[in-house]
Amino acid sequence: MKTKFVIIWVFLAVVSNVNAQQEKGIFGPSNWLNNWTEFKPGKADYGEASQILAGNIAVDTKLSKRDVYIIQGNVYVTNNAILTIEPGTVIIGDAESKGTLVITKGAQLIAEGLETDPIVFTSNKSIKKAGDWGGIVILGDAPINKFGSYSSVNYDLDPSLTTYGGLNPSSSSGVLKFVRIEYAGKKIRGSENFNAILLGGIGNKTILENIMVSYAAGDSFEVLGGEPVMTKMVSYKANGIDFKFTLGAQVKIDNSLAIRSSYLTSSNGSRCLDVSSYIKKEDVDFTKKQTLVAATNLTLANDSDNIDADVKAGLVKEAVYVGENSSLILRKSVISGFNPAVVLDNKIEINDKNLKKIRIEEMYFNFCKGNIFTEGSLENEDLESYYGNSVFFNLYSKTSNLETFNDFANPRRPDFRLALTKITASTK
Predict the structure, then answer these.
(1) Are 35 and 415 in contact, with CB atoms under 8 Å apart?
(2) Using CA atoms, how far apart are residues 317 and 369, in angstroms rounded to an integer?
(3) Does residue 76 form part of some domain?
């Protein structure tokens, strides 16, 4: 009888360990990347444009699947108009005029694709590359932390049409669901690259689900203030930052993925997750909420075939950066193949008060050269000791991507969920 109880206990312990690992990183009973994503967009044939989008769209407008549209120059949806896009519609950004779509404050974008019929924004070049066209800007009236409660997007846009911010955290700027954005991020004269999708002052009633950004020359997702709720976001091989949150953004992001390449970087910074409260400290009203990101079940992975060699060559940097006066709750996530996993701003004093604002727990750290460091410091014993405490349930491993994930190298249908039968983790 005693032997039977021992066997049952061992079985339950194994099951509990498997379940604990299974909850980490992107998850689902099936691979939710199937059907609507495209990991080889350069080879996709989207047809020739048959309709032109240009100037201002000031009345409710619907784009239909039967046509292919081209964005010429900066196109603004204004006057509280609603731009609706049917599932399966293809919208091409003109490379010559650096086409960009801007949803101004009060207007809405309803781009609700289907898993089997996604909406696609892409380049019109025969040989596509990052930065061929602009991207998508969506502006709302949710709070930001700057003095005056308002700001405007600069870049190469009309400042009178790009204000954002306000007092309505529950506003809606529309729906983006089953949408792909490819090869965006035009270079701005005398400035940085545009971002594939920029969300300024977006309220929490905006629906943001199943959005894939691939080969962005700038950042894939930039969030300036607001209270967005984001799920099943995908950033694939961006030059810039995959997910950037600033200006007092109050963000919930879950079940989302960033795949980086050691050979794609930006002079303005290249990492998976960037959490900060401001761009210029003197512009911030500290009586307002500072940036808080609650991130659950993220998978952040470097696709290098030889992490050690790429680290030695200086090609790999941190996955996550946390700026001063910002808060991050990062849980049940996977960070694989970075140098190190997390970097804290060197202005953050390492004490209980500040570390309580940076919760990193139930993580799976794999093949990282160091886990958590202060920026510019070579010593991290205090941080390793703090986050290595068993109360945080963080696990550590050193296996290849092929061993760590279900089907990492599949060129068409990769599966970036943890491969539970292949990996062995420890608490040290």
Answers:
(1) no
(2) 9
(3) yes
pLDDT at 265: 80
Would the pLDDT of 427 be above 70?
no
Whether residue 427 is contained in a domain is answered as no
Copy the structure tokens of residue 332.
């049940």
Specify the pairing of strand 415-418 against strand 405-407.
antiparallel
Q: For residue 1, what pLDDT band results from cuts at 50, 70 and 90?
A: very low
Distance (Å, whole) CA 400 – CA 29: 23
Question: Residue 348 and residue 327: Cα distance in Å, rounded?
Answer: 11
Stated pTM of the model: 0.93
Structure tokens at 143: 């709070």
Closest to 63 (Cα-Cα) out of 90, 78, 84, 87: 84
Asked if residue 198 belongs to a domain, the reply is yes
Q: Kindly give, in sequence order, each residue whose CB lies less than 8 Å from that of residue 306, ignoring residues fewer than 6 positions away.
A: none
Q: What pLDDT score was predicted for residue 22?
A: 55
Rounded to whole angstroms, how far apart are CA atoms 80 and 301?
40
Q: What is the tally of structural domains in the chain?
A: 1
What b-and-e string marks burial along 356-377, b requiring 16 or more CB atoms within 10 Å of the CB?
Answer: eebebebbbbbbbbbbbbbeee
Give the model confidence (pLDDT) of 333-364 as tens digits: 999 999 999 999 999 999 999 999 999 999 99
- What single DSSP character describes residue 290? P
- Give the Å distances, CA to CA, from 15 to 1, 7, 27, 263: 21, 12, 17, 39
Q: Could you give the angle at the alpha carbon of 421 between the alpha carbons of 418 and 423, nearest 5°?
A: 65
Distance CA 276, CA 188 (A): 23
Which pLDDT belongs to residue 3?
46
Beta strands in 16-135, from DSSP E residues, in sequence order: 51-53, 56-57, 61-63, 68-71, 74-77, 82-85, 90-93, 100-103, 108-112, 119-123
Q: Which domain holds residue 282?
A: 25-384
Q: What is the CATH number of the domain that holds 140?
A: 2.160.20
Q: Is residue 393 assigned to a domain?
A: no
**Contact partners, residue 45, CB within 8 Å, separation at least 6:** none
Interatomic CA distance for residues 406 and 419, integer angstroms: 5
Long-range contacts of 401-409 (CB under 8 A, 24+ apart): 401/301, 401/303, 401/304, 401/336, 401/337, 404/334, 404/336, 404/366, 404/367, 405/301, 405/336, 406/31, 408/301, 408/303
Segment 172-185 mean pLDDT: 98
- Classify residue 29 as exposed, middle or buried by CB count within 10 Å of its CB (0-12, 13-18, 19+): exposed
- Report how far residue 333's alpha carbon sits from residue 348's, in angstroms, rounded to the nearest whole number: 23
Q: Give me the mean pLDDT over the 402-424 stretch.
A: 88
